[in-house]
Amino acid sequence: MRKWTVVFILLLCVTAFTGCKSDKEDKSIEKLSVYFVPSREPEEIITATEPLKDLLKQQLEDQGFEIGQVEISVGTSYEAVGEALSAGTADIGLIPGGTYVLYDDGAEVILTATRSGLNKDSEVPKDWNDGTATEASDQQAVSYRSLIIAGPSEKGQELAAKVNAGEELTWEDLNSASWSIMSSSSPAGYIYPALWLQEKYGHSITDLTLAVQSDSYGSAMARLASGQVDIMLTYADARRDYTEKWGSEYGRTASIWEETNVIGVTPAIYNDTVCVSKSSENMNDDLKEAIQNAFIQIAGTDAGKEVISIYSHEGYQPAKESDYDQERAAQKLIQTLNAQ
């Protein structure tokens, strides 16, 4: 009996040792690869994100992972980063929502970047038209909206009056106005407003009789102020960036908040993502959760804030796949436009 007891104890020890060794191996990573998209000069990104290596390594080690090396790379294109995530050569990728949905067969979103929010975020257009300036809030936001703004022209004021009276605009109302639009790759200046028109009226921007493409939001705002166009498409709330120019450069005597009105608001456009590879040999549920926690903690430090400011990120919040359903619809629209 004693003999079998000793054997049993030895077996338990071996099992415990093997289990501990397995757990340790699971949390031992020789190299963790982080990829960034080339939204700025690659060398500038590499230099700015160098401190992330030690920050990420330390945060993951605090959660029980042994990280040999954190390697940071900048893809040759947005698509190259998506392909690296799909192939498993990148463990982590910081990519825009549009890139994520194109590669979500191989990439899993775990975080959405946050930026300062606004004190107005309603889907109801007239809620933006109280005559007061839109201001930054003390809350972080994971998304922003595109606004359809009517200017001081006679037609612009006519459309604004209907909206502010609680009336629904018709396609005929909108098509009788002149529009300033941005290039077809602009989320706020084209893609999301095109989705808005399609969903509400069964028409797209290409169906508008009077539409002119502006090369910048500044030139679009100048056209709106001068009455060259009745409506412009822009991000929320671009008027904050042109409050002074409205009078000093564009020659208006009343404020931009009095002379412009929101007549349409698109669904939320979600911010950039932090994604992990579904194909990486390093990746598992424990590591995903640790990476998620690590980036949130890093963004809460001064050193971390400086690193992520390269992409104008201010923090991170947990994300889920369905957050980017609207972006999937946007990408389908882009594909349709490119096919025409």
Automatic annotation (TrEMBL):
Keyword vocabulary terms for this entry: Signal
TM helices/strands, residue ranges: none
Pfam families linked to this entry: Phosphonate-bd
Gene3D superfamilies: Periplasmic binding protein-like II
Annotated PROSITE patterns: PROKAR_LIPOPROTEIN
Position of the signal peptide: 1-18
Entry superkingdom: Bacteria
Protein name (record): Phosphonate transport system substrate-binding protein
Organism: Anaeromicropila populeti
